[in-house]
């Protein structure tokens, strides 16, 4: 299907939802990778550029072979992106899918591989050092993870992650749990709660209902969903508001999902696998893993209160 036809379908759907077709303009996307090794499967915000006009961010790549890049740093601003590789010091993961900055721990990040291994990283300059790693709790048969987010509320930390799901017969399963760290650095998860989630769009047989998660300061859960017909596409994706999360003063995590998720924007011909709400802004930084076509990034105003 040609790009114009995809855009028309997206516009019709969003008109039905009463929203604006946020993905209609291709020129908003900026390429940062040209082949299957250059896709963006997760983004973590580092900070603003010195002039305040752009952002620094870490991006992870879904690469599996020894020596292939796992992590890069980008400086993203309107009209240009600079990208530089980050050296990986420690056990190499297979298929990194998400990365998140750890609140109140400067230069520390958690990165998630597709089979559910969480890597705690210390990123200094051009090197990421593995501090420790641990499996997610409650991994089920056939689970495939593409998303991870951290929430800091009332002095407590919680993690959200999801099995991505697959088409009509397998919704995504969104999990949440309190998160602490052992004295030696290993991530430790508390009691897990979970909810089933089905994307409103896309809704074909290849839909990954949750391909990434981000949480706003007010607790809105923003998710991407994607359809992938193969390494050469066609692709399709959307960003939606899935619900809300709260963490009580006692550390209890509660997820409330919307009965009908609000579609914030659709992005025909792109496979969004990274959504990062930018601190101090209503913008999200989006990233794509378009397989043989590489990866692209852009911003969109999805993270306001």
Task: Describe the fold and architecture.
The structure is a single chain. The protein is mostly beta strands and 305 residues long. Helices cover 5% and strands 52% of the residues. It contains 1 helix and 21 strands. The chain has one helix at residues 3-17; strands at 30-33, 42-48, 55-60, 71-77, 80-89, 96-101, 108-113, 117-124, 127-135, 145-153, 156-163, 172-181, 187-189, 193-197, 207-215, 220-228, 235-247, 253-266, 272-277, 284-288, 295-300. It has an 8-stranded mixed beta sheet with strand order 2-3-4-5-9-8-7-6, with no helix packed on it. Strands 10, 11, 12, 13 and 14 form a 5-stranded antiparallel beta sheet that branches. A 4-stranded antiparallel beta sheet has the order 1-21-20-19, with no helix packed on it. A hairpin with a 6-residue loop joins strand 6 (96-101) and strand 7 (108-113). The N and C termini lie far apart (36 Å).
Q: Layout of SSEs?
A:
Layout lengths: L2 H15 L12 E4 L8 E7 L6 E6 L10 E7 L2 E10 L6 E6 L6 E6 L3 E8 L2 E9 L9 E9 L2 E8 L8 E10 L5 E3 L3 E5 L9 E9 L4 E9 L6 E13 L5 E14 L5 E6 L6 E5 L6 E6 L5
Parallel strand pairs: 5-9
Antiparallel strand pairs: 1-21, 2-3, 3-4, 4-5, 6-7, 7-8, 8-9, 10-11, 11-12, 12-13, 12-14, 15-16, 16-17, 17-18, 19-20, 20-21
